[in-house]
Specification:
This protein is of the alpha+beta class.
Length: 121
């Protein structure tokens, strides 16, 4: 399973793919998949990674990692999965990016801006 996930480019390394299997982020035919599980054509695999949650049908097998164009021929994403990912992406885009907070103490400039905002300066 970990080798197929790596070859299909769901994860950058086999180690990350195996770790995702250990954490329960990969299901095969409704059951939690271990890294050593055999993958067969026709299997339904659900994968959760940084890119979102994918539900795919296995179309082909590969022992080695190739170009992205070849990797996309190894699986077919279900329509429901594709629609859900697009919906989540639109919701995140609508929320916008509300600025990230800096780690540690505010700088002198940031502190002055906060004071002005609070009406102290």
């Amino acid at each position: 399973m970990d080798k197929w996930l790596w070859a299909a480019r769901f994860f950058k390394t086999r180690t990350l793919a195996g770790h995702a299997c250990d954490l329960g982020r990969v299901d095969s035919n409704g059951q939690q998949a271990k890294a050593a599980r055999d993958v067969r054509t026709g299997d339904l695999v659900r994968v959760k990674n940084e890119g979102g949650e994918f539900q795919v049908e296995v179309l082909g097998l590969s022992e080695m990692r190739g170009p992205a164009a070849v990797a996309q021929t190894l699986y077919r994403e279900t329509e429901a999965s594709r629609e859900l990912r697009l919906k989540v992406a639109q919701e995140q885009k609508a929320l916008g990016n509300f600025g990230t907070f800096a780690e540690g103490k505010p700088s002198k400039r940031n502190r002055r801006e906060m004071d002005r905002f609070r009406g102290r300066g």
